[in-house]
Amino acid sequence: MLRHGLLKGSYIPHRAQRELRELVRYRRSLIEERARELNRIQKVLEGANIKLSSVVSDINGMSARLIIRVLIEGKDDPAALAQLAKGRLKQKTEELRRALKGAFLLEVFSET
Fold it and tell me: CB 3.0–4.6 Å: which of 2, 13, 55, 61 could bond 17 by disulfide?
């Protein structure tokens, strides 16, 4: 069929389009990797009985990142951690205090 011209040639996109497709695929893989890492962080926190995600809307938000950073440094006082809240999360300090009571071990973060 090929010898008689009965097969249609396959479409090969232009170089610019191929490069754009490659960039889009790479961006998608980075977004997926970021989501996996955030899920891992959330799982570690919940394994330590810290229910931060039940109070904050975004585990990657400024307040949540600050609280996680302080937890990694070894400070685990729920009242002090709740005071780190920024913006609208300041209104939920009592909920934060209850959510941050947990058995947190620093070895959990050092292993990952």
Answer: 13
